[in-house]
Amino acid sequence: MKKLVSILIIAVLLISALTVTAAAAITESGTTGDCTWTLDNDGTLTISGNGATGDYNWNDNAPWYDMEVKKIVIENGVTKIGSHAFYYCVNAKAITISDSVSEISDYAFAFSDIANIELPDSVTSIGDHAFTYCTNLEGINIPDSVTSIPEAAFSDCSKLISVIIPDSVTSIGNRAFNDCENLTEITIQNSVANIGATAFGYKSNEKIDGFTIKGFKGSTAETYAKDNDFNFVDIGKVLIGDVNGDGNVNGADAGLLTRYTSGWDNYDEKIKNMAAADINGDGFVNGADAGILTRYTSGWDKYNKYFS
Ligand SMILES: [Ca+2]
Ligand SMILES: [Ca+2]
User: Fold this and answer.
1) What is the distance in A from the centroid of ligand 1 to the CA of 193?
2) Does one domain contain both 300 and 184?
3) Is residue 33 in a domain?
4) I need a labelling partner for 288 at 20 to 30 A (CA). Which of 88, 125, 151, 266 fits?
């Protein structure tokens, strides 16, 4: 019995020792602006406190600049992410930002490797170049508390494939999404009154092939599309037959609709505008619509009446 108790005690001691080893230990710490920071041996950088983190620059880097930061946690109470705070954070893959943060300063995340960033609704201000060269960034939301997307804010985010600009945004700065080579279309609301030079649609000053701007007739977005000779899709009205949403009705749409109505769901291109697919206006999208669209795009005049 005594032996069994001893074994149990040893087992318990071993387990607690292992638990202690497994828990992350703080390896570095310090202050940054109004806040404090810690880095643990799992690579988690935690910023706590009330107010702004420090502002840094190329010559005066953040204290964690050279450290193995794998994950960033901005705790509740932090209101501002200072300039260059996570500049060149190339090992950090994940970040959580608490909804006390209202300001993201210039170059805050420039050249970092974070793949996805969820900005809280509390963010009202994004700085110049804040996310420039985030070459792993696949997704980011722009909260509808943001009114301006400044110069080069998302330039050279080469993996970014889509972005939704909320209707709170009134201004998009020069080069805001320049060199985002995988961003092939963008939807711009009527709220946007200013669009800067090469704000989107360009890669190394060359136009991105087939770049499409969706917006409203008479808007700044339409002017930008015309000035730069990009496709423009008027989202204010439905262009019957343009099921792929590229602004034209042609054989590509007919093929897409035929595949869809035949039930072939194993193809890459999906219908983008279902309202454009009910060609005969009977409230159903089916083979009859695909048939009309196919014949119309083959040049059969008798079907023109559906497309006027
Ligand atoms: Ca089309
Ligand atoms: Ca129909």
Assistant:
1) 28
2) no
3) yes
4) 266
No. of helices (H) and no. of strands (E), the chain: 4, 19
Residues that place a CB less than 5 A from ion ligand 2: 278, 280, 282, 284, 289
Compute the distance from residue 158 Cα to the ligand 2 centre, in Å: 40
Which residues have a beta carbon within 5 Å of ligand 1, which is an ion? 242, 244, 246, 248, 253
Count of residues making up the chain: 308
CA of 277 to the centre of ligand 1 (A): 11
Amino acid residing at 112: S
**Domain end call among 234, 260, 283:** 234
**pLDDT score of 151:** 98
111 and 182 housed in the same domain: yes
pLDDT in tens, 62-88: 999 999 999 999 999 999 999 999 999
**Mean pLDDT score of the chain:** 91
Which domain, by its residues, includes 299?
A: 251-307
CA atoms within 13 A on the CB side of 38: 10
How many folded domains does the chain comprise?
A: 2
pLDDT tens readout for residues 236-254? 878 899 999 888 999 999 9
Same domain, 84 and 150: yes
For 121-163, give the DSSP string.
TT--EE-TTTTTT-TT--EE---TT--EE-TTTTTT-TT----
| Nearest ligand to the CA atom of 277 | 2
Q: How far, in Å, from the CA of 293 to the mean position of ligand 2?
A: 11
Task: Give the β-pairing of 78-81 and 51-52.
Answer: parallel
- Count other Cβ atoms within 10 Å, centred on residue 70: 16
Domain finish residue from 200, 234, 268: 234
Cα 297 to averaged position of ligand 1 atoms, centre (Å): 11
Q: Give the residue-averaged pLDDT of 221-250.
A: 91
Q: What is the pLDDT of residue 240?
A: 93
